[in-house]
Amino acid sequence: MLRLDDVTKEFRIGAFGGKSVAAVQGVSFEVVPGEVVSLIGESGSGKSTIGRMILGLNPVTSGSITFDGLPVRAGKEYYRRVQGIFQDPFSSFNPVFKADRVFTMIKEAYYPSVSGPEWTAKVEESLRDVRLNPGQVLGKYPHQLSGGQLQRLLIARALLLDIKLLVADEITSMLDASTRIDVLNLLAELKIRGLSVLYITHDLSLGNYLAERTVVLRRGSVVEMGPTERVFGDPLHPYTRELLSAVPRLHETWDDAVPVETCLYHERGGGAGGLAEAEPGHFVACARLDTC
Ligand SMILES: Nc1ncnc2c1ncn2[C@@H]1O[C@H](COP(=O)(O)OP(=O)(O)OP(=O)(O)O)[C@@H](O)[C@H]1O
């Protein structure tokens, strides 16, 4: 199980790093085995920073991230369980090398004693698992493959490690509509096989399509989380409602657009910086926002 406990990330900015920006503040949530959780929020809300911290690409400033009790710093043991894929599949490949080099790197790092033929069989099996024809993708350079094929190749690479959690950060945003659905359906199949997925997206409909649970981020903090059908069907926090409502209204400021009559967080006695449980498993933050 993935567990984030009171995770905060501050980036040093400015010419001499004298200032800092709090990208993520006091975020806690879990992803249990076989569960797809979507992390949604507007641009700059901290989604990718959370994904990158889970993958050890950015260190946390405070708090902890563990998978089955293992911290990110456990290195190889952690990455055997947790892998990520990102928006731009082309950036994950070195254009100078054939795309299937990503498999060789996994073999060298994790399975040095597996024989050549056995390894080839394993690679081909994982390619078929992601509905790729080995004959069509092996031995090709990245530019000879489509974005959808490269994304699947990266998922196949993760499957070779028999991972438990896949962090998928905007992985369909550069794909055309039909390939996008193929990749989403593939994630849904992986879930049936017991894989957990943290699906990072700003596309609410895709999150709704795939995830059992949804975590809503605003300015680096969780404002609401719970079963997807409850968060989408009965959003409690005004920010969630705003996200779910259609197009922004240009003549209104955000606060004007969403009047806040009541605040479940206060009604239910939520603690400072925390979330109140409005109904089983459905949590909401203070809705008085900046005046609180
Ligand atoms: N390396 C960095 N140095 C300084 N600030 C950063 C860095 N990475 C992210 N930030 C800042 O942290 C905040 C959160 O960024 P992040 O990329 O996590 O948001 P996001 O929700 O993933 O946005 P998007 O949907 O546009 O990708 C933003 O204000 C961003 O400018």
From TrEMBL:
One of its GO terms (molecular function) is ATP binding. Residues 2-244 form the ABC transporter domain. It comes from the Bacteria. Keywords: ATP-binding, Nucleotide-binding, Transport. InterPro entries: AAA+_ATPase, ABC_transporter-like_ATP-bd, ABC_transporter-like_CS, Oligopep_ABC_C, P-loop_NTPase. Coiled coil: none annotated. SUPFAM superfamilies: P-loop containing nucleoside triphosphate hydrolases. This is ABC transporter ATP-binding protein.
